[in-house]
Each structure stands twice: as structure tokens, then as C-alpha cells.
Amino acid sequence: xKALRWIGFVAGRYVSRSRSNSPSQIFSILGIxxxxxxxxxxxxxxxxxxxxxxxxxxxxxxxxxRLEGLSAGKQSEINxxxxxxxxxSSVLPFREINVLLRGRQANPRGALLRGVPVNAMDxxxxxxxxxxxxxxxxDLGNLYSIVLGSELARHLYVRVGDDINLLSITGGIRxxxxxxxxxxxxxxxxxxxxxxxxLGWAFVNTEAVAELSSExxxxxxxxxxxxxxxxxxxxxxxKAMEEIRNAxxxxxxxxxVGISLMSWRDYNRAFFSALRTEKLMMFILVGLIFIVxxxxxxxxxxxxxxxxxxxxGLLRAxxxxxxxxxxxxxxxxxxxxxxxxxxxxxxxxxIAFNIPVFFQFLERMVNFFISxxxxxxxxxxxxxxxxxxxVFSPQIFYIKEIPSRVVPYEVVLIFLFGFLSxxxxxxxxxxxxxxxxxxxxxxxx
Length: 445
Fold this sequence. Notes:
Elements: H1 2-21, H2 23-61, E1 65-68, H3 72-83, E2 88-102, E3 109-116, H4 120-123, H5 125-130, E4 132-136, E5 145-149, H6 150-156, E6 163-168, E7 181-191, H7 195-200, E8 201-205, H8 206-212, E9 226-231, H9 237-250, E10 260-263, H10 264-267, H11 269-307, H12 309-317, H13 322-352, H14 355-380, H15 408-429, H16 438-441
Parallel strand pairs: 3-8, 5-7
Antiparallel strand pairs: 1-9, 1-10, 2-3, 2-6, 2-9, 4-7, 5-8, 6-7
């Protein structure tokens, strides 16, 4: 205990004196703070984009689990049992076919038509939260009502209340009097934030899709709709799949014959793997800041050890061990890492939670200087002037505002990266203490 006291006393005197006399200490703190600040903001924005895409895919398209191949006779019984499972949040039956849609323009456009129950928004609150209606309502009470994606409606030149021609390309429509097409009325236009869905998706009543296609299950009976299953925790998908297989078994359904139960991990493996790789590479590239700062701290501490050889020799002569003397320098690295990571993390989180405000401020500052340059150029003449600056223009990017999402464990990881880079650099730099011989250092003192 006494050893720790004198180590703390000596380290405190050393740290307080080095702070006022060593610019390298200040630059090291600022370097770590810059790395933590940059990495916190970059990962928050990247999480906002990636998780927005992932949420759109899981809530609208693939769901967390997909159960296919059931017969219509077992549909109702299985639905009730699945909804009673503890990990299941919602179960939504749906059908899908590819169709051609033609609005006011002459050329038709392909789309994926998903048939859902009339009360789909009540059955699946996640879907209701993701599909933001720009106009109209999600009303599929009429057999010939349709809800379109915003980009699809724009390409078809239609609005709420307009009629469109729908042609099934599966050959399900047998009536040739109307050329195999049906007239649907647009009741709503949605925007999911995912361009592919807004451009190529439409929703109708489940019965309308059943009329447009003829499907049978592996038993030869009429095929039931696919079940889109949402979980309370999507990371518990393997456990939920085992519970669903047990529920099928007790309902007399052999899950190994003609039944397909697929997780979101398998359904979107390539896309999610690409997003994960992109995020990892960005983390590594920005994390190089910590390596550069760590090398700076390492060089500064090595220089300090050489400059204080007499003091180190004196401490060793008084009985201090190698570890005790090294801890004095490691404590200095401890405070550099702690202060640097803390100073960078606080503004990083403030900006990450207020990304739209931060970028609006940035745009105003840049546009202010652009306006000054334009004013001067107009006065001088001969220069047309620069256009206004926009970080993420809605005309270029398919977003209304910059998304941001902070993941707690990533924040902790970033803080530890900044803190440990300084601590480890100080530890390795103080290794020269063990080579200091008190007799040689103090021989001529």
C-alpha cells in the first residue's frame, strides 16, 4: 500500500509538470480526441444508413422468418399457434407475384405485387411504422384497391384516386375479354426510404393476388399464403425456428417435407455481409488515427525516459523496482488516453445525436463564405459565381435528412481504442527503464 502511495505521489508530480512543459502531451491528447470524435460520428452516420436499409428490408420484404409450403387447411391453426409463441411479435400472411402496371403513360412497368390481409397494418405494426404514407390511406378493403410506392407512382404518372391497368405475367387471369388485365384504383402512395421498394412494390388484397395466380402446395391442395414472422428480438432467430418446428410437429405437419423455414440471415446473406464488411473497413481506416497517435506517444515517452535517466537511476538506487518506475510513466499514458478519449467522446455523442442540426450549421457556414465570394466576384465581374453547397442533396441522394444511430457497445469500443492506444504506447515506451543501471547513471553525479 505504501508503495502505491509513493508511486502515485511521484507520478502526480511528474504528470503535472510534464503537462505544462511538453507540447507533445497536449498534441497526443488532441490526436486521440480527434480520432474518437471522428470515429463516433462516422459510425453513427453509417449505422443510420445501414440500419435504415436493414430495417426496411426486414420490416417490409423478408421479415425475420419466412414459412412457406403450408396447405390452406392448416393455415388458421398454425397462425394461432405461432402468434402464441413467446418470442414472436407478429405473423402476417402474404402472397407475391410479378405484374405489369400501366398508368397514364403508354409503356407498362414491372412491379412486385404483394397481397396482404385487409388488417395488415394492425397485424404487423413494424410494417405500419416503416411504410410512411405520402398521400391517401392503406385501404385494401376493396378487391381492386392498390397501394403504390412513391417512385412507382411517379413513373406511372398516377395519384390517389387514379386507375391503373394491371397485367399478371404468371398467366393466372383466364378472362380474355379484357386482354388478361384488371383495373385497380390507387388508394394510397407510400414511401419506405428504400429506393427499390418505392420503385418496384405495390400492395393489394390477398384475395386479389390469389385471383391473379394459381398456386398449390406440395400436397396438391391449394397453397396457403407465405407467413412473414416478426420476432421481438431478431437475433434470437435460431431459437424461434426451433420453437416453430416444434409447433408444426404438434400440429401434424412434417417440417422436413415441402416446408421451407428461412431466417433473415440466409435470405439476405450477401447484402448484409457486404454492409458488415464495409463497416469493418471504415472502422479500420479511421482507427489508423489511433495508431499514429500511439506512435507519437511512444516516441515522446521514450525521449522522456532518456531525459530522466538520472531521476530513474536515483529511484532505482533508493530501492524502486522496474515495475514501480515503469508505472510512473504508464500513469502518464493513462491520463493521456483518459482525457483524450473523454474530450473526443462527449462532443462526438452530441453531434451524433444531432446530425441534421450539425450538417445544417456546416452548410450555412460554407454557404456564407460562398455568398461572400460571389459578392466579391460580382463586384469585380467576369465570374459567374459558385452554387450553394449541400452535403446531402435530396436531388442526388434518396434521403430527406441524414440518418444517425448510436450503438452503445460501439461507443464503448471506440473509447477503449483511444484509451488503450495511449496506455499501451506508454507501457512499451517505458520498457527502457529496465535497462537503466543506477551505478552507471550516478557514477559521475
